[in-house]
Amino acid sequence: MTQTLQVTAAGKGDFLPPDPDGFREYVRQNKDRRPVNKVVSEKEAVSRFVSDGDYLAYDQNIAVRGPTSLYREIIRQHKKDLWVAAKFTWTDVSLLIAGGCVSKVDVGWMESGALLNKAVKDGSVKLIEWTNGALAYRLLAGSLGVPYLPMRYMGGTDTFEQSGARLTEDPYTGMPLCVVPALNPDVALIHVHQADVHGNARVFGAGVAPAEMAMASKKVIISTEEIIDNEEIRKQPQRTTIPYYLVDAVVEAPFGSYPGSTPGLYGADIEHWLTFAAAQAQGKTDEYLDHWVHSLASHQELLDERLGEQKLAQLREGETVTEGYYD
Amino acid sequence: MTESEADRATLSLTDIEATICHIAHIIEEDKLYFVQMAGAPLMALLLAKRLHTPGVGYVVEEGAVSPDPSFPLPRMMLGASRSHYRAVQWTGMNVVDAHAALGFMDYGLLAALQIDRFGNFNSTHIGGTFDQPERRFGGPGGATEIASQCWRTIIMTKLQKRKFVEKVDFVSSPGYLDGTPGARERAGMPSGTGPWRVVTAEATFDFDEDSRQMRLIALAPWTTKEEVLEKMGFEPLVADKLESMRVPSEEELNAIRAEIDPGGFSTGRGEWITIDAATGNKAG
Known about the structure:
The complex is a heterodimer of chains A (327) and B (284).
Chain A: E1 6-10, H1 20-30, H2 42-49, E2 55-58, H3 68-76, E3 82-86, H4 92-98, E4 102-107, H5 114-121, E5 126-129, H6 132-144, E6 148-151, H7 158-161, E7 166-169, E8 176-181, E9 187-195, E10 201-202, H8 210-216, E11 219-227, H9 230-235, E12 249-252, H10 270-281, H11 285-294, H12 299-317
Parallel strand pairs in A: 2-3, 2-9, 3-4, 4-5, 9-11, 11-12
Antiparallel strand pairs in A: 1-7, 6-8, 7-8, 9-10
Chain B: H1 3-8, E1 10-14, H2 15-26, E2 32-35, H3 40-51, E3 57-60, E4 64-65, E5 89-90, H4 93-101, E6 107-111, E7 114-115, E8 121-122, E9 125-128, E10 133-136, H5 143-149, E11 152-156, H6 183-186, E12 194-199, E13 203-207, E14 214-219, H7 225-230, E15 237-244, H8 250-260, E16 272-276
Parallel strand pairs in B: 2-3, 2-6, 6-11, 11-12, 14-15
Antiparallel strand pairs in B: 1-16, 3-4, 4-5, 7-8, 9-10, 12-13, 13-14
Helix pairs in contact in B: 2-3, 3-8
């Protein structure tokens, strides 16, 4: 007897329709299987692999191991109409809104200051509700090549109503079950501690979902604190979080999470966060972006001209915990 | 009594500090906790760990399992290396959420902006509509997976009319939904789960087993039942016998101020009260 999955309730939120066969075909046509050198500048990575209208995902956030040098490049290149996954996020979304880059946000958690409130009210940014865990789980589904996964939360809430989740009857047990569609972002930005030129990448510390995100996304840009030899990767293969064939571009970006920290390496610049918060409160984020993004040609210029060696040394000293990361 | 002796016999504390002390005191050493990432819920767990239950295990949503942070803690705890220090495992969000789905997490520990009589809570917007909110907030974060999948959920908030409301502006995360039997299970949540305590500085609530409605069960010594009900936007059930909540100790307050939240970045912002250190009665 044929049984069909009974959908008993459906949220009204938008989502990219899951398309596992389309994803497979994309991989077949576009992803390079050879271990070639993928090192490019952030300028080239963003111009080649981020397009207006893309669905953009990133791992971690502007406070910890977020790919902030790539955010700044996206703003510098005036990318538009991005649909952003705000999973376990802080001011990342506000920064991209300030840059005029965002039209839709999938909400897990984000900082919600003046910029976001204004953008929601004037309709320039549309929000779709999920949770941090639901977005990570949708990436897990996306990373497995299946169109959806069942889970045991979100049903019964207004969050569900504003999401793209469905309530179903489980075909095995008959019990009510929430299902969420696979998330296969157009592009993922992932900042890592170490990578080789092919894109074999290592993330140290609690990670949120870097491996799932790299697997689920069509285009993957890695920014890395340092580039290490492929020989080093092969000596400790268990430390590889992301293998090379998932990766499209490798960008060398020391202090690539500034003003956030990269655990085990350098601490966050709390004063810089306060600067952004003040700019947001005073409606002066254009001046902030002029100073920190548009007047600079690259991340390296930011390090050289806005921070300097003494400041970078302070940030390194600001990381007091190193145990467990590089040993 | 001299004036200085009288000073020593009183304690001044914020409502946030009081709430943290109350929660720290109900933490059990032989249970596992899923704690909302930073802020007051984590501080309550860490206070318990520092003073009462040093071996208690907990996870945070970004994937750190049973860390043992070093005190004094840094000002910015979110995902930072110091809050993950000496964990037994560094993993990711899908793994710790699955630990909750499997039934390992006895308690979820959360904060809420707004809560209704069935323990449904809001972290999405206050006022207006979803599309045109008066004030948009950050969203549920990890609270929904925690409140749905841990066996029991402890929710901390402030005792204010605008927080305890008949109908929340948006059900971000579930309590007992409409309170009917089996409502959570019908919505796809694991059975036998739900909000267990709502803790504020002045009062503690549980949920009636039959009606699933919030019930006042304990009062801080410095307040009365009438004062508590006056600060709520709906009338809760009231237990036949109201327990008296423990008076926060000087030791607990010192640990909060010197080690858990040096500088009072989170805990010093609340409303201040002064109480008799021995009885907990309002001083003055």
